[in-house]
Amino acid sequence: MPTSVKILHTEPVTHDVRRYRVEKPDGFQFEPGQATEIALDKDGWRDETRPFTFTALPDADTLEFTIKSYHDHDGVTHELWSMQAGDALLLDEAWGTITYKGPGVFIAGGAGVTPFIAILRKLAADGKLNGHTLIASHKAEKDIILREEFEAMDGLDCIWTVTGQDGSPLDRGKIDKGFLQHHVRDFDQQFYVCGPDKMIDDIKSTLKDLGADADGITFEE
């Protein structure tokens, strides 16, 4: 049964991404990388559930979600953009298969980075980020989610690529076989992949071609 929780605070992360801090129900538990189904607790929206990832650490007093809004249609994320402190969301139980299984490479497409936020924050808090790499693809530099925070994490190697911005000093390549061969030295490690379905399928196939163990590739199933 979904639980109604109030939004406590919202703030911008990028031009189309916001951070939402909400009430945490008593006894609520989740693992970094997991998600939940959320609906807007308002007339006309309670049956429209969408999956969103927890981005705060499990021991925090409140829950946090970092959500990209798509304004090209009148959907849940577009409506969520206008909600403020005091408004309510309907929260379900935690679920998900993206959990930490050891050092490796996190590969994200756009908002697909969100399941990695809590995982990397936990590793940073524990001083265990050495040997981890984040590879994230976006259309433009303005779309990069939490760039400053990730770059400030001691031990995390950040590799950004933008596919739709002429003149950017960042890498502009697609995350394909050549890209991975150039940036990844060891394919005998863990890989975590999240993004659009086609991107996930392509990267999984490419990683296997490059020698990665299928059991060492974690993605949302």
TrEMBL record:
InterPro entries: FAD-bd_FR_type, Flavoprot_Pyr_Nucl_cyt_Rdtase, FNR_nucleotide-bd, MRET, OxRdtase_FAD/NAD-bd, Riboflavin_synthase-like_b-brl
A GO molecular-function descriptor: oxidoreductase activity
FAD-binding FR-type domain: residues covered: 1-101
Cofactor: [2Fe-2S] cluster
Name used for this protein in its record: FAD-binding FR-type domain-containing protein
